Request: fold
Amino acid sequence: MKQLAELGVYVGTYCQPMIPSLYQPVADPMETIRTIKEIGPKRCIIGSDFGQVLHMDSIDGMRVFIRALLAFGIKPDEVKVMLHDNPAKLMWLD
Reply:
């Protein structure tokens, strides 16, 4: 993934691997943290993949995801880059 990011690709990271559930009872939240730290927030996009049956809704999923990112050392300005700035660039809204 790091090589792709160096070529300009944005890497998506999502809620589900951060939050153990019935679908992924052995999820390792540190995998997502390692990915973000290895690639850097300027090449990551975060999003919710929740909202299915047996999961929390998408908004609550993002709230939990962002809190987990912050708790594991991702800085608030880095969260903003991944959640707001990078998607805006891809949609030519920046």
In short: The mean pLDDT is 87. The first strand starts at residue 11 and ends at 14. The helical segments are 2-6, 29-39, 58-71, 76-90.
